[in-house]
UniProtKB/TrEMBL annotation:
Catalyzes the ATP-dependent phosphorylation of N-acetyl-L-glutamate. This is Acetylglutamate kinase. Pathway: Amino-acid biosynthesis; L-arginine biosynthesis; N(2)-acetyl-L-ornithine from L-glutamate: step 2/4. GO terms for molecular function: acetylglutamate kinase activity; ATP binding. Belongs to the acetylglutamate kinase family. ArgB subfamily. It catalyses: N-acetyl-L-glutamate + ATP = N-acetyl-L-glutamyl 5-phosphate + ADP. Substrate binds at residues 64-65, 86, 186. GO terms for biological process: L-arginine biosynthetic process via ornithine. It comes from Phycisphaera mikurensis (strain NBRC 102666 / KCTC 22515 / FYK2301M01). The record marks 29, 248 as: Transition state stabilizer. Coiled coil: none annotated. It is found in: Cytoplasm. Pfam families: AA_kinase.
Length: 290
C-alpha cells in the first residue's frame, strides 16, 4: 500500500511540471556513449515519448561516435579526435553518414513510432535542417588545425523544425550538415544540438551522456550540480574538462546564448534520467548557467 501511495505522490509532484512545460520545446541530445547498452536508446526514447504524450515538444539530436569508431575499424581506418571532433576525410564522412542515418537515425525514429509517437528523421539524405561551413580549430599559439570535412553550424532551418513540431511529430536530427555548395560536413552532435536549442529558444536543453555530470576534480568522481561559464573556463584551462566534454560545454553555452532557458548534462545510464531531470524537484546531473 505504502508503495502505491508513494507512486501517487510522484504523479502529483510531476503534475506541476507537466503543466509548467506543456507546449514548451525541449532539445534532447542523445550521446553515442549510452548506445553501448542494448536497451538504453529505446528506454531513453520511451521517456521522450512520455514527454510528448504530456504535451511537451521534444526535438531529438543524436550522436553515434562509438558506432562510427566500430565501422571505421571494420573498414581498416583509425579514428582520430582533436578537441572532441573526429578528423574526417572523404571515406570517414561516408562511413559516418551511413552509420548515423541508415542505422542510428532510422532506429531512433523506429523506437518512437513503436511507442506510438509520430517522429520524422531530418538529415542530409533527406530533409536537412542544419547548414554549416568548414570548422577551423585553433591549437597552441593560435595555430590552425585542419580536421578535414568537419563543419560548424551557420544556420538552422527553424521554420521546417517548427512545421514538424506543429504537425505533432518529433524531429530526429542526425549531425551531418550541408554546406552552401551542396556538399556535406560532419559535425559533433553536441554542437548541432546546442545550435538547434538556441535557434528554437528551447525551454530546456538536455545532453544525455555516460557521466553523472561534470567532474570538477581530476582525482575524484564527484560532479557539480551547477557550473557557471567562468567556472567551466577554469576547468578547461586546468584540463579537468577535456575530450568529449569540451563540445558539450560549448554547446550548452551556445544554447543559452541563443535564448534557450536551461541547459543540463545528465547520465543516460540512470533509468529515466530525462524524466527525473524535467519532472521532479530534485533534478540530476550538472546545470550550466551563464
Ligand atoms: N570534467 C569532466 N566530467 C565528466 N566527463 C568528462 C570530463 N572531461 C572529459 N570527460 C569525458 O567526456 C565523456 C563524454 O563525452 P563523449 O564520450 O563524447 O560522450 P557522448 O557520446 O555522450 O557525446 C565522458 O565519458 C568523459 O570521459
Ligand atoms: C565532427 C565529429 O566529431 N562528429 C561526430 C558526430 C557524431 C557524434 O558527435 O557522436 P557522439 O555524440 O556520440 O559523440 C563523430 O564523427 O563522431
Amino acid at each position: 500500500m505504502q508503495e502505491a501511495i508513494s507512486k501517487a505522490a510522484t504523479l502529483v509532484e510531476a503534475h506541476a511540471y507537466i503543466r509548467e512545460f506543456r507546449g514548451k520545446v525541449v532539445v534532447v541530445k542523445v550521446g553515442g556513449s549510452i548506445m553501448d547498452q542494448p536497451e538504453a536508446l529505446g528506454n531513453l526514447l520511451g521517456d521522450v515519448s512520455f514527454m510528448h504524450a504530456v504535451g511537451m515538444r521534444p526535438v531529438v539530436v543524436h550522436g553515434g561516435g562509438k558506432a562510427i569508431n566500430a565501422a571505421m575499424s571494420d573498414a581498416g581506418l583509425d579514428a582520430q579526435f582533436v578537441q572532441g571532433r573526429r578528423y574526417t576525410d572523404e571515406r570517414t564522412l561516408a562511413i559516418a553518414e551511413h552509420v548515423l542515418i541508415n542505422d542510428i537515425n532510422a532506429a531512433a525514429v523506429g523506437h518512437l513510432k513503436e511507442a506510438g509517437t509520430p517522429a520524422m528523421g531530418l538529415h542530409s539524405l533527406g530533409s536537412c535542417v542544419v547548414f554549416a561551413k568548414r570548422l577551423t580549430l585553433r591549437g597552441e599559439q593560435n595555430r590552425r588545425i585542419d580536421i578535414g570535412m568537419v563543419g560548424e553550424v551557420e544556420w538552422v532551418n527553424t521554420e521546417l523544425l517548427r512545421a514538424v513540431l506543429d504537425a505533432g511529430s518529433i524531429p530526429v536530427i542526425a549531425p551531418i550538415a550541408r554546406d552552401p555548395a551542396g556538399g556535406k560536413l560532419n559535425i559533433n552532435a553536441d554542437s548541432v544540438a546546442g545550435h538547434v536549442a538556441g535557434a528554437l529558444r528551447a525551454e530546456k536543453f538536455v545532453l544525455v551522456s555516460d557521466t553523472h555530470g561534470i567532474r570538477t576534480d581530476p582525482d575524484s568522481e564527484e560532479t557539480a550540480s551547477t557550473l557557471t561559464r567562468d567556472a567551466t573556463d577554469g576547468l578547461i584551462r586546468d584540463g579537468v574538462i577535456d575530450g568529449g566534454m569540451l563540445p558539450k560545454v560549448e554547446a550548452a553555452l551556445t544554447a543559452l546564448g541563443g535564448g534557450c532557458r536551461k541547459a543540463h548534462i545528465v547520465d543516460g545510464r540512470i533509468p529515466h534520467a530525462l524524466l527525473l531531470e524535467v519532472y521532479t524537484e530534485a533534478g540530476i546531473g550538472t546545470e550550466i548557467v551563464l
